[in-house]
Automatic annotation (TrEMBL):
GO cellular component, as recorded: cytoplasm
Protein's UniProt name: Mini-ribonuclease 3
Needed co-factor(s): Mg(2+)
Taxonomic source organism: Lacrimispora xylanisolvens
Domain of life of the organism encoding this protein: Bacteria
Claim: Cytoplasm is one of the keywords in the record: yes
GO molecular function per UniProt: ribonuclease III activity; rRNA binding
Amino acid sequence: MEESIISLSAFTDYFADTLQLKNVDITSYSPLALAYIGDAVYELIIRTKVMNHGSTQVNNMHKKSARLVNAKAQADIIRSLVEGEELTPEEIAVYKRGRNAKSATTAKHATVADYRTATGFEALCGYLYLSGKLERLIWVVSRGLNRIGELE
């Protein structure tokens, strides 16, 4: 595990240096801004997981990803983590801020409750990503997938 931490740390440093990213206090971001980046990070994790199952038609990979990258699945994940007391108080606070944020967009294929809950989950993913807590982010996603029976 130590080797992965070193390479992960080197990657994040290289990423920040190469793209000339500024150090920003992530508490200055709105919950919806955290959800914006969290949505992308979560989708990348899921697509990586799907790709790891082997090469198949892109349409099949898309279907597998779409089953997990939607408001209902994300809401199920975060609810299971909260119910299982798997999150820290800080993570729960970030999730709740995201869930309670007023969004200009509406749910397309989900209930309002699932959509808002999923937004909270995405905010948590964004928060963990921007905090550099990538190992915790991966753990939260994999544990959530496991709890809802989607980790193969």
